[in-house]
């Protein structure tokens, strides 16, 4: 259907000839007996049931002529394919997503776990930011840049794939919030975008790293980077990883959910951002929707259209059908006056 949607007819009024062609063929069909000589025979018993190649091909000639005329009508309507190009003029926003990969992100108060839901919801957010550059930073006991700022969102979405992408266990365990934020700010400090934003998602308390979260927030403020912080985790207790078995698999136990909300609020306040608390998947979706609305920018889109003629395809089909009809008429279907 997408191919048909890109076809435009420059002279569509030629399609008015199609009912005329159909009417002419119908008229010829009901009057066909008057065009051929008649031979009266006392009985058809001697030739009844006889079928030859000539008789079988008898109907092919008018069908070919009909198809050739219809194809030529389409050619005269001048079909063209429409190629659209978008020219975007916008003062875009540079956004770095900072994702917590500490083992507590496997807590099961979100279904199936916090990390799975966080990646899925963040992926939906990225899909809605068509014209922004987006980067991705991950942290646990240390931090690193998973993807630099890019407009190729497919790269970011690969890492945010809920079934794959970012995984827990690739970094030393812990929660180095300051390291994660500092790494993200380092990616934004040289940006010339109108707005520079960090969305930091964590479910714990800063307990490691050589960069303090408040120091990282001060650096973000110096570079005019706005930080939105999201605390992920339900109120009360949740099943979280506590120990590992002999095969390295996590064992879960019921533990108190601890999030340093005061720290996250201070980071956001220092950088003119906002703090959000996600208690479940639905609230996390609403949070990203809120951030999406807060960080809108005016976009001017110019649509450029280029046309490519396709009439020759129909003209070729029409000429081939007409050529085949003529060959049949003067060979196998030839009649003697």
Overview of the structural elements:
By secondary structure, the protein is α/β, with parallel strands linked by helices. The protein has 2 domains: 2-84 and 308-330, no CATH class; 92-297, von Willebrand factor, type A domain (Rossmann fold), CATH 3.40.50.410. It has helices spanning 2-5, 17-30, 53-56, 60-76, 114-127, 153-159, 177-188, 213-222, 261-270, 281-294, 311-330; strands at 7-9, 79-90, 93-100, 133-139, 143-150, 195-202, 225-232, 237-244, 250-256, 275-278, 299-309. A 6-stranded mixed sheet has the order 5-4-3-6-7-10, sandwiched between helices. A 3-stranded antiparallel sheet has the order 1-2-11. A two-stranded antiparallel ribbon has the order 8-9. α8 links the parallel β6 (195-202) and β7. α2 runs antiparallel to α4 (60-76), α4 (60-76) packs antiparallel against α11 (311-330) and α7 (177-188) packs parallel to α8. The radius of gyration is 35 Å and the shape is elongated. It starts with a helix and ends in a 7-residue tail after the last helix.
């Amino acid at each position: 259907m997408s191919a048909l949607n890109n076809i435009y007819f420059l002279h569509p009024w030629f399609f008015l000839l199609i009912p005329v062609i159909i009417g002419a063929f119908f008229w010829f069909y009901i009057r066909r007996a008057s065009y051929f000589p008649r031979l009266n025979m006392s009985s058809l018993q001697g030739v009844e049931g006889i079928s030859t190649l000539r008789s079988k091909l008898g109907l092919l000639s008018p069908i070919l002529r009909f198809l050739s005329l219809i194809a030529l009508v389409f050619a005269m309507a001048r079909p063209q394919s429409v190629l659209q190009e978008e020219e975007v003029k916008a003062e875009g926003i540079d956004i770095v997503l900072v994702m917590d990969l500490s083992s507590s992100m496997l807590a099961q108060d979100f279904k199936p776990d916090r990390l799975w839901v966080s990646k899925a919801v963040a992926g939906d957010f990225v899909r809605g930011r068509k014209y922004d550059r987006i980067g991705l930073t991950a942290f646990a006991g240390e931090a690193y840049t998973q993807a630099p700022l890019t407009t190729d969102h497919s790269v970011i979405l690969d890492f945010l794939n809920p079934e794959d992408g970012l995984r827990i266990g690739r970094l030393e365990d812990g929660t180095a919030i300051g390291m994660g934020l500092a790494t993200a700010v380092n990616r934004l400090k040289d940006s010339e975008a109108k707005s520079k934003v960090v969305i930091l998602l964590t479910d714990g308390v800063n307990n490691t790293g050589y960069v303090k979260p408040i120091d990282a927030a001060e650096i973000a403020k110096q570079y005019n980077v706005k930080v939105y912080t999201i605390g992920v985790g339900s109120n009360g207790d949740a099943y979280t990883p506590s120990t590992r078995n002999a095969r390295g698999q996590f064992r879960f136990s019921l533990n108190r959910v601890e999030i340093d909300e005061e720290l996250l609020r201070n980071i956001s306040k220092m950088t003119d951002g906002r703090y959000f608390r996600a208690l479940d998947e639905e609230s996390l979706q609403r949070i990203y929707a809120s951030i999406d609305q807060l960080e809108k920018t005016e976009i001017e889109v110019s649509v450029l259209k280029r046309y490519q003629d396709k009439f020759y395809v129909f003209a070729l089909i029409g000429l081939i059908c007409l050529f085949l009809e003529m060959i049949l008429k003067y060979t196998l279907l030839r009649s003697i006056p």
